[in-house]
């Protein structure tokens, strides 16, 4: 029965994990927070001067002393 309504993927009905809690909209996508090169991601919130940390677009928080915090 051709009723002219093709089935399309709405963005809500399929949990394709291409989109997670990342804020990264860069092309190509920055490394995941668990990637060995995670700190190569772009800085989205820079508090290095005042608080000693930076938030990267993959959710990683990098501290001034070289430590980093991986998001849950
Ligand atoms: Zn990015």
UniProtKB/TrEMBL annotation:
<dbReference type="Pfam" id="PF19462">
    <property type="entry name" value="DUF5999"/>
</dbReference>
<dbReference type="InterPro" id="IPR046041">
    <property type="entry name" value="DUF5999"/>
</dbReference>
<feature type="region of interest" description="Disordered">
    <location>
        <begin position="1"/>
        <end position="24"/>
    </location>
</feature>
<protein>
    <submittedName>
        <fullName>DUF5999 family protein</fullName>
    </submittedName>
</protein>
């Amino acid at each position: 029965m051709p009723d002219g309504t093709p089935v399309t993927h709405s963005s809500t009905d399929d949990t394709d994990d291409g989109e997670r809690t990342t804020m990264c909209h860069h092309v190509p996508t920055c490394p995941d927070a668990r990637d060995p090169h995670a700190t190569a991601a772009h800085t989205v919130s820079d508090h290095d001067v005042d608080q000693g940390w930076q938030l990267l677009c993959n959710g990683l928080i990098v501290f001034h002393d070289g430590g980093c915090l991986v998001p849950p």
